[in-house]
Amino acid sequence: QGGINGKKIEVVVEDDAGDPRSAALAAQKLASSDVKAVIGTYGSAVTEASQNIYDEAGILQIATGSTSIRLSEKNLPLFRTCPRDDAQGSFAAEQLLKKGFKRIALLHDNSSYAKGLADQTKKCLEGKGVEIVFFDALTAGERDYTATLTKLKAANPDVIFFTGYYTEAGMLLRQK
Fold this sequence. Notes:
Structural class: alpha/beta
Strand content: 5-15%
């Protein structure tokens, strides 16, 4: 209607394609324009590729799904719309402990998010009277997870905590 504080807002769209290299190019393009803030970048690796560019240009960055702890360790201005890996891992471990699971399998897909969450969850579970009976990665995009499911079954966990994305989760559930 009237913008913000009477100033009109124009939305400028650049596609980072969920890829760090594309994100850096998009960030450079936005930095050379009159953009004041960026809402976007989904994923820590994508955010990291653009973070320094936005900081040097004085552009406010709001990351939508970037959970890596290292993004905060750079001490650059960054706003997030979701908790960091350490907060999510702590919460996940708390819930697994609260449910009384003693033999826990942690499975990730080696993506920055999934591995970070699995690592943090494992770290928070260590020394808490539970046994991590399985900690491994699957390869995202595969069509057959029989080998992974066979290893999981042999580990005989009380629960499987998969930290990856929905496509692989669906395949795992279908094939189990």
